[in-house]
Amino acid sequence: MAGGNEHHLAKTYTWPDFKTALDFVNQVGAIAEVEGHHPDLFLAWGKVEVTIWTHKIDGLTESDFVLAAKIDALPQY
Amino acid sequence: MAGGNEHHLAKTYTWPDFKTALDFVNQVGAIAEVEGHHPDLFLAWGKVEVTIWTHKIDGLTESDFVLAAKIDALPQY
What we know:
The structure is a homodimer. Chain A is built from two helices and three strands, in the order βαββα. Chain A is an alpha+beta fold. The longest helix of chain A has 18 residues. β2 of chain A pairs antiparallel with β2 of chain B.
């Protein structure tokens, strides 16, 4: 996942349709539950924008990078 | 679903946690596939923002209101 600015990590994943994008959201959701850390997810037809940061400090911590790496290791289209 | 402006319909649904919000996203996704019309969905911990419009005309058509009504009829927290 490419770094955004100092405040958050953001990446857009593209998919061939809504259903495959939604499947990705569910895979990300499963990782988030395991990690106990949850991204923001913007789902539109054929794409998912993932945004990660630590709300408590309004910035980035190690768990943000761990979550981002695990999401980015998911199968992509 | 409350009307937004003339351009789109938008409503935020709140949930007690990430998982219930994600469950709602999946229910909306199932409706969208049946209707053949797909909203934009912003999922964050405890909330889902639904935005609906018809891209082809960059405005609202009957199918937007049908989709919005079906989503709004889903069980809410």
